[in-house]
Amino acid sequence: MNLFDVYSIYPIEIIKAHRSELWDKDGQKYLDLYGGHAVISIGHTHPHYNNKLIEQINKIGFYSNSIIIKEQHILAEKLIELSGLKNHKLFLCNSGAEANENALKLASFHNGRKKIIAMKNSFHGRTSLAVSITDDEKISAEINKNHDIIFCNLNNHDEIINQIDENTCAIIFEGIQGVGGIHIPARELLIKAKEKCKRVGAVFIMDEIQSGYGRTGNFFSFQDSELMPDIITMAKGMGNGFPLAGLLISDKIEAKKGLLGTTFGGNHLACSAGIAVLDVIKNENLIENSKRLGEYFFDQLKSLKKIKEIRGMGLMIGIEFDFEIKNLRDNLLIKHGIFTGFSGKYILRILPPLNIKKEEIDLFIHALNIELN
Length: 373
Ligand SMILES: Cc1ncc(COP(=O)(O)O)c(C=O)c1O
Description:
CATH topology of the largest domain: Aspartate Aminotransferase, domain 2
Helix content: 25-40%
Bound molecules: pyridoxal-5'-phosphate
CATH superfamily of the largest domain: Type I PLP-dependent aspartate aminotransferase-like (Major domain)
CATH architecture of the largest domain: 3-Layer(aba) Sandwich
Number of strands: 15
Shape: globular
Radius of gyration: 20 Å
């Protein structure tokens, strides 16, 4: 049977991985500066993570949310400790789109409204509501187009604030726009928008699916300010490759039996992956590492010519060029064995594991320098 052919793929079969290194079936080694799309937070095949999963699956891998799953509570405790968010509650699910879908649904349950404000260039996932707040016509089908969505320009603060009114169900921002090209929302905008939401009874949602979990040098990217979102969505780095996602929901939004639900979300194995990730982030100071090595990365990039702009925070970096980067990206992979990501045609997107080493950044800078000269 053939696969449903929707992905553009490189003809490379990776069979082994460790930290930021990958090996293909012919023994060729690669450097992973893409982290499987920001998913690999603590590095590939981390021994603590592997052991935790093996230990857990030998005990019990799955049971539904009809019983006590102690691992959910341990995960929640560790999340409070690392994120510092004491007044939010945790709901666990399986993917980023599902987290956003649930966040919007919850907002609408909370205030009974429908209007959603999202940003131009946004990406929030591919399920019905998540894709409707994603600013990309190409991935939206007719059936996704009946929702009440307004797209605003991230730079137009007045437009955004004026749109938040008594009919607004929720406003949603990405911590940093990833697919849209590594754009960081201004802190004063976020704070003003949150204040207006509070005034008119709208829900403020922060999508930290790509930018969260220590990647930016804070546990969540917005935590360099006093902003406190009503709902925060998380996925990607949360399970280091094990499908695990979640919502942090402020105390002001009330839970009722049956309001949200999922078969797989929060199972024993997924939670063990999540617990192991948080253990490693804490024990190996990976948030601090993201900050420090992010700064080093920026400094090294600044010394290169032919770069139009460098944007980002910590280890979520966009390198913009004034030429199309397809060949550059292919050459980095084929000639230098380095995986990178992209945002559109002109921007290289760098999303390495958070325990990347300085020498590995140097390898990339050296390769990029060769390709740009
Ligand atoms: C900011 C953001 N939100 C949501 C999603 C969707 O996550 P998933 O692919 O797990 O559904 C992504 C995925 O790239 C993302 O970057």
